[in-house]
Amino acid sequence: MIAAQPRSRILGTGRYTPARVLHNTDLEKIVDTSDSWITERTGIRRRHIAADGELTSDMATAAGRSALAAAGISAADLDMIIVGTISGDSPLPACAVHVQQKLGAWEIPAFDISAACAGFVYGLTIADQFITNGAACRVLVIGVELLSRILNWKDRTTCVLFGDGAGAVVLGPASGDGRGIVSTRIFSDGALAGSLVIPGGGTSEPLTVDGIERSRDKVHMVGQDIFKVAVKNLSSASLIALEGAGMTAADLDWVVAHQANLRIISQVAARLSLPLEKFVLNIEEYGNTSSASIPIALDEAVRDGRIKPGHNVLFCALGAGISWGASVVRM
């Protein structure tokens, strides 16, 4: 197969993570769990938690500014802002419009994507389409979550997993040198919509005092359901994206997978016949930051020199919906 030609490329990356760190040993004091239990089952040792008064849009703006600086452009150069998040400042309006104002961008389209952990891959895919058809030239794509405020801190099956943070990329037209987004694919299957959900707060279950007392406004997850499909769907989406790029897994220099669980990542590596050493891993430090996890890990690896210009990199993620996808990018 002839490799596809990139249509858009990553011009710059950025990230932001809060200063406060919550260790597994800290969680031992507030919920029935242990450092060893969390580490052995997830690979997580720490996670970063937003400061009091710190907003989702604050973190997104900081990551966005970092990506803009790396791209060598200003907010005035942007044509669009896409934010992947399920934990915005408020249910209405979109977090993206707050980011637009804080960055000082013009009256450009700014909107959110609610695909949870797959939000960044969805945003990247949508931005690529806008650039391809000429409707936009430079697009800021941000993944951000402030999950610590929508967790039930008495539920040890969820509160130990997640952290706060933001990551961002600036996309622009491919320059003809082969670098850029070569292939991207996204999918959804509503059959498991109830397996990872915030049940209260929408039109199907308006919040009541009783609902709040029962934490119906917090994240609920059937972990076994998600785990069962995660490895299969991440692997299949990755292979489909690679086929679209005219590549095989052997052509990859790096994989930046959603940092949900080290066991899931290890099994995806095995299915792709890749050593775990080819995967950018930071789950130990940040836990699951949902839509922010891929761009945070990407920015770390770009800035420390692991990911270099010309490297073939695979992104893959799965989240609530369930929604999932994969992208092949030549950096």
Automatic annotation (TrEMBL):
<keyword id="KW-0443">Lipid metabolism</keyword>
<dbReference type="Pfam" id="PF08545">
    <property type="entry name" value="ACP_syn_III"/>
</dbReference>
<comment type="subunit">
    <text>Homodimer.</text>
</comment>
<dbReference type="GO" id="GO:0006633">
    <property type="term" value="P:fatty acid biosynthetic process"/>
</dbReference>
<comment type="function">
    <text>Catalyzes the condensation reaction of fatty acid synthesis by the addition to an acyl acceptor of two carbons from malonyl-ACP. Catalyzes the first condensation reaction which initiates fatty acid synthesis and may therefore play a role in governing the total rate of fatty acid production. Possesses both acetoacetyl-ACP synthase and acetyl transacylase activities. Its substrate specificity determines the biosynthesis of branched-chain and/or straight-chain of fatty acids.</text>
</comment>
<keyword id="KW-0511">Multifunctional enzyme</keyword>
<feature type="region of interest" description="ACP-binding">
    <location>
        <begin position="259"/>
        <end position="263"/>
    </location>
</feature>
<keyword id="KW-0808">Transferase</keyword>
<feature type="domain" description="Beta-ketoacyl-[acyl-carrier-protein] synthase III N-terminal">
    <location>
        <begin position="111"/>
        <end position="190"/>
    </location>
</feature>
<comment type="pathway">
    <text>Lipid metabolism; fatty acid biosynthesis.</text>
</comment>
<keyword id="KW-0276">Fatty acid metabolism</keyword>
<dbReference type="GO" id="GO:0033818">
    <property type="term" value="F:beta-ketoacyl-acyl-carrier-protein synthase III activity"/>
</dbReference>
<dbReference type="InterPro" id="IPR004655">
    <property type="entry name" value="FabH"/>
</dbReference>
<dbReference type="GO" id="GO:0004315">
    <property type="term" value="F:3-oxoacyl-[acyl-carrier-protein] synthase activity"/>
</dbReference>
<dbReference type="Pfam" id="PF08541">
    <property type="entry name" value="ACP_syn_III_C"/>
</dbReference>
<keyword id="KW-0963">Cytoplasm</keyword>
<feature type="active site">
    <location>
        <position position="288"/>
    </location>
</feature>
<dbReference type="InterPro" id="IPR016039">
    <property type="entry name" value="Thiolase-like"/>
</dbReference>
<feature type="active site">
    <location>
        <position position="258"/>
    </location>
</feature>
<keyword id="KW-0012">Acyltransferase</keyword>
<dbReference type="InterPro" id="IPR013751">
    <property type="entry name" value="ACP_syn_III_N"/>
</dbReference>
<protein>
    <recommendedName>
        <fullName>Beta-ketoacyl-[acyl-carrier-protein] synthase III</fullName>
        <ecNumber>2.3.1.180</ecNumber>
    </recommendedName>
</protein>
<comment type="similarity">
    <text>Belongs to the thiolase-like superfamily. FabH family.</text>
</comment>
<dbReference type="InterPro" id="IPR013747">
    <property type="entry name" value="ACP_syn_III_C"/>
</dbReference>
<keyword id="KW-0275">Fatty acid biosynthesis</keyword>
<dbReference type="GO" id="GO:0005737">
    <property type="term" value="C:cytoplasm"/>
</dbReference>
<feature type="active site">
    <location>
        <position position="117"/>
    </location>
</feature>
<keyword id="KW-0444">Lipid biosynthesis</keyword>
<feature type="domain" description="Beta-ketoacyl-[acyl-carrier-protein] synthase III C-terminal">
    <location>
        <begin position="242"/>
        <end position="331"/>
    </location>
</feature>
